Fold this sequence. Notes:
With 405 residues, the protein is of the alpha/beta class. 54% of the residues lie in helices and 12% in strands. It is built from 19 helices and eight strands.
Amino acid sequence: MEKVFEGFLGGRKIFANRDALRPDFIPDRFPHREEQLRRVAGIVAPVLAGQRGSNLFVYGQTGTGKTAIVRFVLGQLEAKARAKYANAITCYVNCRVAGTEYRVLAGLGKSLGVSVPFTGLATAEVLSRFRGSLEEQRSFLVAALDEVDSLVKIHGDVLLYQLTRINETLKEGRLSIIGISNDLRFKERLDPRVLSSLSEEELVFKPYTAPEIRDILYDRAKSAFNAGALEDSAVGLCAAEAAGEHGDARRALDLLRVAGEVAEREGSDKVSDIHVRIAEKKIEEDRVSTVLGSMPLHSKFVLWSSYLASNAGVDAAVTGDLYEVYVELCKESGVEPLTQRRVSSLINELDLLGLVNARVVSLGRYGRTKKVKLSVADGQIARVYKDDPWINALAGYVPRCLSKT
DNA sequence: CGTCCACAGGAATGACGGGCGG
DNA sequence: CCGCCCGTCATTCCTGTGGACG
């Protein structure tokens, strides 16, 4: 322990400011996004002069700088408004994190000082409180709704419709909306009225190229790392890795940060390629064990079924087989199994989490089903679930329907 | 070329825990 | 405390369907 502490205190440190690499860090420079920055700023600026800004729709894949740019501009706007005594307020809500219309509205309300219990009220009531407060305070609110697509996918566009129309019923105060989405096709799900209102202005963030990501990394590394603590090739590797995905700068930054942490723990004084390679593995493992650990019981059983099937030599189990195994596991554990319909949904959720690969196939005469393959190293699943009480109770249990073959 | 399998996945509905206003 | 409404999870019932088999 002494050694670890000393490593942090004395000697050469790797990091100067590790936070500059964290995903929620908002830098003050945006290499290769100057154009977008200007556009967003130009669109919200009228608010300072007491005019409503246009609604804006921002689209781009993950890690293309949408969120950072918007949050940066909102921050600047708010500061400017304070300095000029303009009644402009900004607000940022991540719809996927919020999860429901209710909580999105609660988040919007919070920026106006409307506090709302976390459940219990009718959604319409929260909306009307929000509207009331906006009117009363005569505020010009710029609200960023991040990952709106996930909200619309689950709850439809009713809330967006109401929000885009709110100005028509306001005598005082105005609302402008910045919608941020990863999914461009999501526009197809929108009511045309909502779409035209929401995308008065549109802005697309293209994926970064590898050289662009390298510039970003160097820019951040200047403040994040101590001089000489970072090898050029390591930066190049992170950039190449992330560009290979889809130009995801966030992934590149993550990679670089974790690589730095690995190097630090090793006690080396430089971050090099090998640390990036280790970081890559570690990030994936962390992600998997986090989801695995926090999964509901039945999802664990479904995943475990898939694990057992692949261990028994089944390359890609179909829903029905998996369900059979799952039911046996439940019986063995004394748990009431869920219906196949529900399990089918759970499989889809596991697919979304990237733990499993499920795709619908038609076996012709033999029906139409999903083929489910484990998409995580099975050793890791076994390792994480070694300590899980429910799964542990099933250790060594081989379901009958699998032992036949 | 039609049938028919084995599900997919949408819609309606219900149980449940939680918070509200009165 | 009550009656009401909420979101979440799950069930039930349902219609839809790609393509191998006969």
